[in-house]
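Late entry, written up from scratch paper. The run itself happened at the end of the previous shift, but nothing got recorded in the book at the time, so transcribing now.
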Amino acid sequence: MHAFDYTLRAAGRADLDGARAVMLDTVYRDFETGYVPRWHRDVIDLEGAYLRPERHTLLVALDADGEVVATGALDSRGPAHPPNPAHVAERYPSGVTAQLRRVYVRPEHRRRGLARRLVDELLAFAVADGGYRAVYLHTDPAVTGAEPFWRSLAKVVHDEREDAGGGQGIVHFDVPLG
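Output as recorded:
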């Protein structure tokens, strides 16, 4: 399959179980953390986190069989301090920052352009909103392919691995808005 063999759309209620399955599989398999409420609360309440708030969105990619195989979300919350560095939280205040979240692709569907298509659609959503001044995301470089992918689309604003003690090991990115 190629990227054009998939259907991308804003998630509806019927897509939430499939989206949640992709997300939970990712946090268990790729992140090896499992579900951690303070980090993954949005995954349990996808409707409240992404469908109901006007300036938030959740996108899904479906394969030819109609199965959700990838997700991408955007919300208006900037990164909190703590756990994130204070200068990152100050640079990306809530309300004017679009934060990209949960850009996850099932392993057997990776390297087909899905993540890039999802990000393009999320950025178009942020531009159309008109109230966002910046786009922010963070990634765990331990996840195979995540850091090189984001480096191809965005600019590193802080790499916690360079901090004394290594911080959380997270890499923070600024994504060009349009």
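Residues 114-129 form the longest helix (16 residues).
(Scratch paper discarded after transcription.)
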